[in-house]
Design brief:
2 copies of one chain form a homodimer. The first copy, chain A, is of the alpha+beta class and 185 residues long. Chain A is built from 5 helices and 8 strands; from the N terminus they run ββββαβαααββαβ. In chain A, strands 4-1-3-2-8-5-7-6 form an 8-stranded antiparallel sheet. The model of chain A has no long low-confidence stretch (mean pLDDT 93).
Chain lengths: 185, 185
Amino acid sequence: MPAPLTVSFTASHTGPWAIDRMATVVGEGLPGAERLDVREGAGVAAVAGAAWNLHGVTSHLRYTHKNEASALVAVQEGLGRAGATCAALIPIRKSEAWWSLAQDDRRAIMEEQSRHIAVGMEFLPAVARRLHHCRDLGGPFDFLTWFEYAPADADRFEALVQALRRSPEWAYVDREVDIRLSRAG
Amino acid sequence: MPAPLTVSFTASHTGPWAIDRMATVVGEGLPGAERLDVREGAGVAAVAGAAWNLHGVTSHLRYTHKNEASALVAVQEGLGRAGATCAALIPIRKSEAWWSLAQDDRRAIMEEQSRHIAVGMEFLPAVARRLHHCRDLGGPFDFLTWFEYAPADADRFEALVQALRRSPEWAYVDREVDIRLSRAG
């Protein structure tokens, strides 16, 4: 468990990732752009001329229990795999109703009712992902999740996203943008 | 549950709170200063000429269960009470061993073993407090807790602090500074 790492996602006309499509799922969208740059440890400074610029920090596990964490570690793979030329960045914000809940209520909705951790595990190791927290940073979203997968796993990734969006947990999501990207293999 | 509020604690030669004493409990200390200013919503910019400057954000409950949250709301009082002319600012950092634990393990150490929430509740409403998170902000501490109490409750506050320091949870605290303050009544 390393110290929190600040990660910046900057949409403009440069960057290794081509933005193939952007969909506003709920709430306000984000301006369109051609390319995305992902920078680690660059701080939260704004980038001049960017269409948008989102920051988050990797952090400790907020809901995952020990048995789940062990299972995740055993099967998940890291970012940057050579064949994983598809990516998704999905910024979400949750409602005040969510944040007003106590920890046990949030955990119950997230896992016992929505099986968020268990569902995600079904798609490992095909879909690698990293969660970035940003609610405490004061940005417009609460979480930025980054996913990487091979083109052959695109249908599986779609199934994962749809399963989560159908869950009781997602009733608390009041802003969501779905950004799909690709890079040269 | 309002949105996260950024709070800055600035030690220098000005501010409404007189710093009466500063003790380094474990790890590295902080430079001495005469006065403390507490500003809400001021952002995380550095303050020129300050001895030190710490920022944190109020946030949602990370461990508190619903029954505990209800009990807290019923009995706790807010900051800024006229008679609460004593204050303490206690910045702490927890070890990597703590942050590597899963959520259920951290909750078990904090409450089932250390009774952190229950112990704190015994000192309500005499001791009002506000927790500020700062691990995700990249500062030198993980939490800044601010306490306010009347001079007549100073012994009770001391008992609260000592009870927490004796708990199993505190074995994971690797930096702690205890700053005691007062203001004109």
